Amino acid sequence: MSVTVKSAKEIELMRKAGHLLEGVYEEMGRIIRPGISTMEINECGEKAIRKRGCIPNFLHYGGFPASICVSVNDEVVHGIPRRDHILKEGDIVSLDAGLIYKGYHSDAARTYAVGKISPELKQLMDVTKQSFFEGLKYAKAGNHLYDISAAIDDYVSQFGYGIVQDLVGHGIGTSLHEDPQVPNFRQKKRGMKLVPGMTLAIEPMINMGTWEVIWEEDKWTVVTKDHKPSAHYENTVLITDGEPELLTLHM
Predict the structure, then answer these.
(1) Residue pair 70/42 in contact by the 8 Å Cβ criterion
(2) Beta carbons of 162 and 210 less than 8 angstroms apart
(3) All residues at 6 or more sequence positions from 38 whose CB lies less than 8 Å from its CB, including other chains
């Protein structure tokens, strides 16, 4: 395993990449409503990335055909945007996006309500987001990597939701996916010790039903095996000497 520890200069570039991505999400979030297509969200996101002088890091990554992953309802991640996939009142939609700024990557995900949603879906979204922050409490130098995983699992399990196990968070830097992997479920060991300068993409993917997922025929779109809804929340996080720093979200 080769885990990179970033220099002060690299951290500043990643901080800028994260801040720019936060602005992209603000633009995409404003257009989400019933009647919009998932392709329109992708086009909005790509335009927002490029006008900031950045490159969409998902576009053509491993052959992915779009700049933004747009996943609706039972789609967990990697939903391919389509002109004919129209959002409806009561849907939830998860966006996963990232950009490259001067060679450095940022990565984040958000789940949005489309119009008015059911209390059950609202709880799923809220728990998924809060599980990230429960894990974040342990993203500190001196703690161990899987302390983050255990905290996410302990919080989510109270609600009886399924935690996706086939997909995990990851390190990030000059590559979109670097070591180490960051599971969202409890591990038998504590894992490696965290040190200042590590940058991690922590991203709980939480299902209303089973944790099990399947890949659609397009070989990208991941859906829940029982076709119950799923939510996704992610930020790029910097490990520091003190509290962790969120690079893709200003609190």
Answers:
(1) yes
(2) yes
(3) 70, 72, 79, 81, 82, 85, 87, 93
235 SS3 class: strand
Tens of pLDDT along 124-179?
A: 999 999 999 999 999 999 999 999 999 999 999 999 999 999 999 999 999 999 99
Full set of structural domains in the chain with CATH? 8-244 (3.90.230.10)
Handedness of CA 161, 115, 79, 14 (dihedral sign): negative
Secondary structure (3-state) at 18? helix
On the 0-12 / 13-18 / 19+ scale of CB atoms within 10 A, 97 is buried
CA 103/CA 57 separation, integer angstroms:
10
pLDDT digit string, tens, across residues 38-84: 999 999 999 999 999 999 999 999 999 999 999 999 999 999 999 99
CA dihedral sign of residues 119, 149, 144, 201: negative
Model confidence at 1, pLDDT cuts 50, 70, 90, reads confident
DSSP letter assigned to residue 231: E
Looking at the predicted structure, is the pLDDT value of residue 2 above 90?
Answer: no
- Give the 3-state secondary structure of residue 133: helix
